[in-house]
Structures are given as C-alpha cells and as structure tokens.
TrEMBL record:
Residues 1-21 are annotated as: Disordered. This is Glycosidase. It comes from the Eukaryota. GO terms for molecular function: glycosyltransferase activity. PANTHER family: GLYCOSIDASE. Keywords: Glycosyltransferase, Transferase.
Length: 417
C-alpha cells in the first residue's frame, strides 16, 4: 500500500454538506474578525505578556502588539481552511491479472486498458485494451501493430476479490490500424471519458503512422450502447497538427458554460505534459507552456505522461493521476533500465489549470512478479489509463498495464481532512 499526503490552503467545501460547512467556516472567520476589531479598538488599554515567542519575535521587529495579533488572527483564517489529502492504493483481484495469457486472450500481449462505463452505472461496462501479437518466436520484442479491443465486464464490482472480463479474440476489435487515418503502425493506449449529458464516450488514443513513424493523439466517439460494435465508432482524426508528435490525452469535461481541458502528452519530445482547452470537445486550443514538467532526481525524472481523465472529489477539487518513469533499474531487455510509477496531482475546483498539490512519492509502483517480469515485453512497468468510481465516497478502481503484457486492477482511496 502506498500513501501520499498533501497540505494546501484552498477553501473548505464539501458538496455533501456544503451549507453547514460554509456556515461553520464563515462563522469562525466572522468571530476572528470581531475579535481583531476589538483588539485594534482597545489596543492602548491591552497589556500583552512578552513571554511568548511570537511576542518576542515581533518586538525585535518593532511591530506593535495589536498589529501582531491582527496578523496572527488573519493567518488563523487560513489555518481554518487548511486541507490534507491522503491517497492510498491496494491491489485487488487476489493480486492476479484481470487479463492474463492463455484463456483470457488470443493475443500475445494485452495491456494499457481504458474503462468504458455503461450509461446505467459507473460500476458496469467494460475495458478497451491495447493488444499485440509477436512476429517472431525467437525475438521477444518483435511485435506487430497494436489493436484496440473491447471486452465487457462479467462480474459485479461490489466484490473486488474476483474481476472477470469476457475472453478476448479478433472478433472484439473495435479500432484497428489502417492507412486511411495514418494509423498503419497501430492504434495505442486508449483513454475514455464519458459525457453523461450526451451519452457519448470520448476516446483519445494514439494513431501511429508507418512512414514516417509519428504518434498522433486522435479522437473517436461512440454511444454507450454501441461500444462493442466497431462500425459505430466515429473516427474523428488527429486532435492537433498532423506533423506534431502527440499522445496520451486525459479529458476533463466540465459544464457547458465552462471550458473543458485536455491534459496530454509525454516528455519524450518536451519537458513534460501540456494543457489544451475546448468548448465543444472536438476542437482544441493548445497552450505552449509545459503544464506538468519532469522533476530532476525524483521518481518522475525520466518521463511524465498523461493518465486517465480526472475525477472530481467530494471537496470539489479534481484528482488527476499521471504516469512517470525513472532510470536505474537494469533489465535483460536491451537498452532498458527504466521503472514506471504512478503519481497524482490535485487540480483546483475553480480553475483546473491550477495545481494545488503534486505527490512527492509515487502511489503505485511495480511490486509483483508479473509487473516486473523479465520475460515480458517491457519489465518494471505499471501504466494507468482507465478507472471508475466505486460506491464509497472518494474511492475508485483503476486498471493498469503490467510490463506491457497484462492488465491488473487496484483500488484507490482518498481521505480528505
């Protein structure tokens, strides 16, 4: 189990008890204001002991005692609003893959899954999985193009000890590589965001061309009742300029009168992730500034890359997960010494362009043998692209690619204080 703790100074706001929470906060602040006013009014008649450390400090600065109290009381209004997020993760499904080899799939490698919820419930639906086959019996790392496959959930997510999906085969392919949309080299790494108002899934994925090899962040849309039907997917093409390398789009859908945001990219060709905005979820204006950079000498020093779409928390702020990597983990794969981890940021509820906090430690790392497997396509990798909300407040289930070979699942819980 991994834990990340944050401390910040935003407003306290819980939608489940908004009126009471706001009344309590304003009552305390009003009381502090009245006390401060009285202190200032009668400051000449007040004698304050000089024995406290704060008094001695302000005395050295020649600050009047009444002014000192005013500053401290103002600071206390922020202390009332102080907030801590604690994020924990725990593997489920009895520490076994939810999509493995053999009976689970006819493909050799199955990984990097996006959860596609049903219109009925966020705890029902299925996953879009990136699937590949080997092209050589002797070369473990020689693979063909990637396909996007949908498989429905067969079990109830109220019991996370056993999670089952329908077996995967060619008949479940919903998006495949074609020359028509510049994806001859494959379609990779889906992320799905559901618009409840329009009953539409917005699926961002990488369409990789063959000559030259360029990844382009692309969009497909589909209604929730048609996610298993390949002919119902509308392929809308690249989000940005075709000449630009792009991938990994995590979409935050907001109310119709507000901008929605796409947190996208990786640090392969830049210093970090970027941010784009949209009014219609189809056309985007990209910011040229790096939104989430790599950090030197940390667990996200080699790479940062988008995860799944952000989810709103009970305090109104947004939780966004992201993928990261660091060097220093040698393996038998030629030229590969990287370990992938998962981190998070808290985005401001009023302005999701603002980061309130970024995790100091990873909340999820390769630990199990099948996550570190030296005989996999890419050892020492956990990579998250899909998740869904569970019944308990601020509790989620995420699906992750393990060693670019299998799909695992874990429960994530946020405690807000």
């Amino acid at each position: 189990m991994a834990t990340g703790v944050a401390r910040s100074w935003p407003d306290v706001h819980d939608p489940r008890s908004a009126n009471q929470g706001e009344q309590n906060r304003h009552s305390i602040n009003l009381l502090l204001l009245v006390v401060t006013s009285n202190i200032l009014t009668y400051s000449r008649e007040i004698e304050i002991s000089a024995t406290c450390d704060y008094c001695k400090f302000f005395d050295r600065l020649n600050v009047p005692r009444a002014s000192m109290l005013f500053v401290l009381l103002l600071l206390s209004t922020y202390l009332v609003d102080a907030k801590t997020w604690t994020v924990t993760t725990e593997r489920v499904n009895s520490n076994k893959p939810v999509i493995g080899h053999g009976a689970d799939s006819t493909f050799d490698w199955n990984y990097n899954a996006a959860f596609v919820r049903s219109a009925e419930s966020p705890m029902k639906g299925g996953i879009l999985v990136r699937c590949q086959n080997r092209t050589s019996k002797t070369d473990l790392y020689a693979v063909g193009p990637s396909y996007m496959v949908y498989t429905p959930l067969l079990t109830d997510l109220t019991d996370l000890s056993e999670i089952k999906f329908a077996p995967i085969d060619d008949s479940r392919i919903v998006i495949g590589p074609t020359d028509k949309d510049d994806s001859a080299f494959g379609v990779e790494d889906p992320r799905s965001t559901y618009d409840e108002k329009e009953d539409t899934h917005y699926i961002h994925y990488s369409a990789v061309s063959k000559s030259p090899v360029i990844s382009r962040l692309s969009l497909a849309t589909v209604k929730s009742a048609s996610v298993a039907n390949a002919s119902e997917y509308q392929l809308r093409g690249p989000i940005f300029d075709k000449k630009t390398w792009s991938k990994s789009g995590a979409l935050l859908i907001r109310k119709s009168n507000q901008k929605s945001y796409l947190y996208w990219g990786d640090s392969s060709f830049a210093d970090g992730m970027f941010l784009a905005s949209s009014r219609d979820l189809l056309h985007y204006t990209n910011s040229r500034q790096v939104f989430l950079p790599k950090r030197a000498n940390m667990w996200d020093s080699a790479l940062v890359e988008g995860g799944p779409h952000p989810f709103v928390l009970s305090d109104g702020n947004y939780l966004m997960l992201y993928n990261s990597a660091r060097n220093g983990f040698p393996s038998k794969k030629p030229g590969w010494d990287v370990q992938y981890n998962v981190g998070y940021v808290i985005l401001d509820k009023k302005d999701p362009k603002k980061i309130l906090y970024r995790s100091e430690q990873p909340i999820f790392s390769p630990e199990l043998d099948w996550e570190k497997d030296e005989d996999s396509l890419t050892p020492n990798v956990v990579f998250i692209e899909g998740w869904t909300r569970l019944a308990e407040p601020d509790t989620f289930l995420f699906f992750y690619g393990a060693a670019d070979s299998l799909v695992g699942a874990a429960k994530l819980t946020v405690k807000i204080r």
